[in-house]
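Posting for a labmate who doesn't have an account.
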Amino acid sequence: MDYFAARARRFARSSAGLIVLVTVGLGVPLLVAVIALAQRRWYPVLDLAMTEFRIRDVGSRQTPLIGLPGRIGEFPDQGSHPGPFNFWLLAPGYRLFGSSAWAMEASTALVQTLWIGLSLWIGHRRAGRSGAIVVALVVALLVRGYGLSVLTQPWNPYLPLIAWVVILLATWSVVAGDHAMLIPLAVAASFAAQTHIPYLVMAGGLGAGAAVLVAVRWARQQRADVAGDVADGPPRALLITAAVFASLSLPPLVDQIRRTPGNITRLLDHFGHPPEEAIGFVHGFDLLLQHLNVFRAAGTMLTGTGGFVDLGQLNGATWIPGALVLAMWIAAAAATRLLAARRDVQALVHLHVVSGAVLLLSWVSMSRIFGTTWFYLTLWAWAVMVLVVIATAWTAVVWFNATGGGTGRRVLLGAVGVIALCTVATSVAAVGTDHPEEFLGETLGAVVEPTADALDPNDTYVVFWTDAHSFGSQGFGLVNELERLGFDVGVYEAWRVPVTGQRVLTANEADAEIIWATGSFVDVWRADGRVTEIAAVEPRTPDELAEFAMLRTELIADLMATGLDDLVSLVDNNLFGVRIDDRISSAALEASKRLLDLDQNAAVFIGPSGVSQ
């Protein structure tokens, strides 16, 4: 026992031991959240059902080559996010934890923990234990700010949030001369850019800039060496990075070659000729300043977890606090230049260089947003805010130390205290973590078993939906759940992109048709003598039904009063379409949001194949 205890103490005191122990500590909130989520059965809908299709396909002949479908192009020929790296990375954990819906969340938490460990390793590589502590502080703050519902959710806008931290740290390392960090930078940047296209400009810009920097440094060294007749080949890090990047980029390139048009072509067409005008540099700069508002961000972290999501939905907030933070960073960067001759300040100088590049790329990325400025398009920007604040605070500490203040050790001790407090508080909050769109999943879950009981496991079924509530979200989930139970199910050609081409069936290939209906469409199908109702659910209580009726009446009255008569029929046939129409009043917006939260009745019918066509 003494031998093993001594080995454990030596490991804990080692660099590797420190990184592992801190990673485990920072991962405790994720572990608590995953355990809490395991207590309730989850039925993924919409994007997360589509995600599970693709994770399930990894390793098969239909292994995904591109990412999740997005708001790219027009239905049914929409494009997808660039690549499948996220599905491939989630697949091992998904199978390890049992290939269930919950296993996707557990695998997501595992992947996020791996990114955390990589971040800490880079921080330790840069500045030893002090670097690891500072990075741990960044991670602890971001985990609390984003919340556990976000960081355990395998949704493509959320998956790269911690990988983005790795990108920032690895870029800083490369700028500081640690060229080996070009390799993890290429991996993390590929993951982020393939998973969600808003990262393409930023992660791609930082990755390409870092690679060019290494190449330029090598070229300069070559010229110096040639004069002394000691020329070398390209640095190993650059060659390995090129090989890694090429390998990770191969799947979307294969898709581009195999299909006409390929997904890359669709992306170039859509973003090269966007359907709406971009918000522009003025609005983009205002949006950037809103995300630099450290005062609002700190306030949300004091009151609970997940505050960054709420802040991201409050567009139009004042830009003044963010402008103050930006001005403080500019002053700190200028002050750092005065101390640049000192060797111990070089890392800080490089951090300010990277911060400036990231701010510029963030501004460009935000300025290119067109259509609705959804919160998830800029959720990554809160990490930029933390980076800017850390660089500014570090400058203050260095300045005080240079004048004999000696504040460095006290600041690190304070950081350790904040990390511990954040992690404990976030772990406590993690007990209440919810599944994504859990209320929609509960409605779906109520009909899955009776639907399965009514089906013949030897038959082939095509699934169709008429959804008055949430544009087919639960229809995707029904296909996913029946496939999970071993049924041979698919969809019609129109849904080939979201459900994948290998799951497409024609009416002639199916033995029968399953129809998911919600709201007003339930009565339409009940009146159709060709189909039989096999399952039904009313998720609303009597009080909620009364509230729904009242809000529906108020919403219709508001639409008519504001001259939006064309939307009145959609209240009963496409409620989500009303919710996202940018012409509706604030009162109508709130009413439609609440109506969606209340859900609607649903039923499942079975009939002859082709009955819906």
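Reply:
Got it, the structure tokens are right above this. The first helix runs from residue 2 to 13.
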